[in-house]
Amino acid sequence: MRNVCLYFNLHQPNRLKPYDFFQIGHDHFYEDDKLNKEFLDKISNDCYLPMNAIMMENINKLGKDFKFCLSISGTLLEQMENHRPDVLQSFIELSRTGQVEFIGQTYYHSLAYLNSLPEFERQVKKHNSKIQEHFGQTPKVFRNTGMIYCNDLAGRLENLGFDGVLAEGLPQYLMGRSPNYLYTAPHTKNIKTILKNDKLSADFTHKFADQSWNEYPLTAEKYANWIANDMGDCVNIYMPYETFGQHLSAETGAFNFIKNLPYELKKQKVNFLTASDQIQQSKVKEVFDVHLPVSWRDTEKDLSAWSGNNMQKEALQKLYSLEETVINSKDENLIHAWSKLQTSDHFYYLNTKTAEDGKTRDYLSPYDSPYSGYIYYMNALADLEITCKEKMNIQ
Amino acid sequence: MKKLKVLKLGWEFPPLISGGLAIACFGIAKALAKQTDLTIILPKASQSSILDNANIIGLNNTDVKINNSVNHSHEKIYKKYNAFARTLFASGMENVSPYPSLEKTITEGTSSKSTEFNTSIHSSKFSESTTISTFFSRFELDEMYGDNVQQKVVEYAEYVAALAANLEFDVIHAHDWMTMLAGIKVKHQSGKPLVIHAHALSYDRAGPDARGWNYDLEKYGMSIADAVIPVSRYTGSIVEKHYGINPQKIFPVHNGVEPVKTFREKATFPEKLVLFLGRITGQKGPEFFLEVASKVIAENDNVRFVMAGSGDQLKRIIETGAYQKVGNKFHFTGFLNREKVNKLLSMADVYCMPSVSEPFGLSAAEAAQFGIPCVISKQSGAAEVMQHALTADFWDIELMAKHITDLLENEMLRKKVVEETFEDIKTCTWEHAVEGIMGAYSYALGYDVKANPPSEKGTSQPIFSSSFEKKITPNFENIQKDDLKKIQGIESKVESLLNLGGVFSYSDLAYTKYSKLKSVLLEAGNNFQAIDPSTWAEQAELAAAGKWKTLEKLQKELDRGKDD
Lengths: 395, 564
Known about the structure:
The structure holds two protein chains of two kinds.
Chain A: E1 3-10, H1 33-62, E2 68-72, H2 74-83, H3 85-96, E3 100-102, H4 112-115, H5 117-135, E4 141-142, H6 151-159, E5 164-168, H7 171-174, E6 182-184, E7 192-196, H8 198-205, H9 220-229, E8 235-240, H10 254-267, E9 271-272, H11 275-281, E10 284-287, H12 304-307, H13 310-320, H14 323-329, H15 332-340, H16 344-348, H17 355-364, H18 370-394
Parallel strand pairs in A: 1-2, 1-8, 1-9, 2-3, 4-5, 5-7, 6-10
Antiparallel strand pairs in A: 6-7
Chain B: E1 5-9, H1 20-35, E2 37-42, E3 55-58, E4 64-67, H2 74-82, H3 93-96, H4 100-108, E5 134-137, H5 149-164, E6 171-175, H6 176-190, E7 194-198, H7 202-206, H8 213-224, E8 227-230, H9 233-241, E9 272-277, H10 286-299, E10 303-308, H11 314-323, E11 330-334, H12 338-347, E12 350-353, H13 362-369, E13 374-377, H14 382-385, E14 390-392, H15 397-409, H16 411-426, H17 430-444, H18 468-472, H19 492-500, H20 506-510, H21 514-523, H22 526-529, H23 536-545, H24 548-563
Parallel strand pairs in B: 1-2, 1-6, 2-3, 6-7, 7-8, 9-10, 9-12, 10-11, 12-13, 13-14
Antiparallel strand pairs in B: 4-5
């Protein structure tokens, strides 16, 4: 049987403004609202709207035969609610076709799983209700920030009622096995682990525009052929939605590629599945055993992109040290402000890696250096800390 | 009365650049212009002069007739600027000698566009066969410092020398290493005395092990200078001990501190604020500030530390701060404009200057004017001026942290330090500084220095090497001084000789070796050579112990011996 699952993740952070020392104590809004709106407008025009149109067209033409998964962060949904309800509406329309499965994640696209389990649970639930609110479904499959995954995560998600969890199909844990099967984590009962096919996913995301690649140009036909001929139950192709129009500009032909891909896959007699479809249809093959957290980020595919250096560790430690005070305050605004500072991008910008990973960071970061990013972040956090102290004094 | 004609050689000068050196040079020039006939040559000056009564020449807008006949081969230039140096001028001399492009231009007869130093040579005047003896040129300088600053220094010297050939002056006054070479050249050319003002040395910028062309130039310049004016006794001690300069010609003069407009503003956060302000480089001791901060923060939750400024150590300090887990209480501002600096000063509760080596430290004096109590390193000129500020060695984290904690917690102490330090710096005026500078001029010109009596607070007396350590201790005035004339064989002239040698009390004398005493006397000249100090130690011991009767008995015996 030949199956494919297309999964796209979508997220935008609330980037901080250059929050300087002189703002501490009286400026309690840390985000660069204007910049964030600019980013949202640009990505909406370059990616979200044209992609939604293409996906809608594919659904209209292929009907029940075409389906895919989306995971949208709470921060992005809020940005759309506030600035681009039209874009949000186009996602809602996609969802109404019944051909889109929404995948759960932490509401704030955070690293809460690694830093505070109660906070992690709170955000998972918050994201579930947000998805329910807009798209009328509650996620049954979960995808953690940065595809951070380990056995313990699968167990905890099972307790939270999830049927499946997405993970990176890292070769050192596959140990020669194919990622195109359902796996399970040790000591779990029902939850399935669905692995990304890293090779085929990267062939598109990283090599599509590479003219020095011997397979260049990669046509939808060629790609469909590769998928059709890969062994196993289901090939999972995961990528950021923003790959289209942002990482791969329209000029590269990425939109045409995704427009044609479903037809080429059909020609090859490949079926489209969602994550939940896989869980229902396929049998678990073997145990995928990952003791310590891994991710899909950077060369190391570990946690170093977010917490590899002292600045990141300090920022995370100081942020989560405020948890108790913030949550106990029961002040929704304060909780929300603190939560938004948890978005993983804030910590990713502070990594000091060099070479290719450093270039990727510089491309994504709104700051001129990780050091500036750290200064702004810690200043903002200092202000939040002062607010917390005032709350405590009042109580 | 005929005014002294002073040729001042400067590098930074307002309004084009306003670092510490520029502020000092301007302050000196302004006060000096009132008493002397002052000409200032700068590499770059704005068209609109900001000093009315001085003649300011900017090489960037003056055509200079350069005598080009003598030393134009690479070897000669090479020799000339390395004669004094242990370190070669720069590696790859062929490429960086001051005139390579010039020669190229001349021999090839091509346009001057390619000239590396933008000397704007009017190449059309030359042809391949022309033997050039002179040419007109204008000195151009894009940035005051930068990768090729050493070449600029050499070039500046050439231009200044050419220009000075047609100027009339009595004394040359050069500021820091950038203008030293020019000063040396003009001294050789004119035979006029050279006075070097030391604002900051390689020692300060790069540490005691700093060597290289700049250090060599400083050492050479100060050794042939007729007088050296360090901006503090602290820097004077470096000039003497680190550069081996004859202490007799060292005249420390403290900078003036201009009164600044101050105001107080309440911080927008509840915590107290401790401030570090300056370039974030090794010289300023930022890592010591961080250590102090970690220590204070660990015990006091109600304080924030701010490191304002930028520099090559910034990233390292940011990461170390994160490592020390003080990220939420230790803040960085990056480079700040004047307005923001004043805002910070208006909010600060304690100012900390833990410099590893600070010739003066104007920022501390400014902070004091803002009513901020200061904790400053002993390795600074400011510690001499601000005698009531709290001081500690730059490495003494414990003491500095204690000082800061005390100032944060003890309101009485804070008030006392603020008020008394404020009084301390009132005496620091540029007029006062110029008195000292005039003293150094007089010495350089060969006059009796006492003709220009140094005022009591002034520091324009030469420091004598043997008594140097004593002189720099603040308690010098209070030192115990005994009447050494009570010792048989010591009369008042001998007493002052001994004082200069660091011998003030009976016990000092009792512990001074015969050979040392004898050498002091021998050095003092013919009148003293015959004096025999062999019994002084014995006499002094009795005097120190208060055994006056025994001493009297001894002296009688000695008298008798003489009679025999």
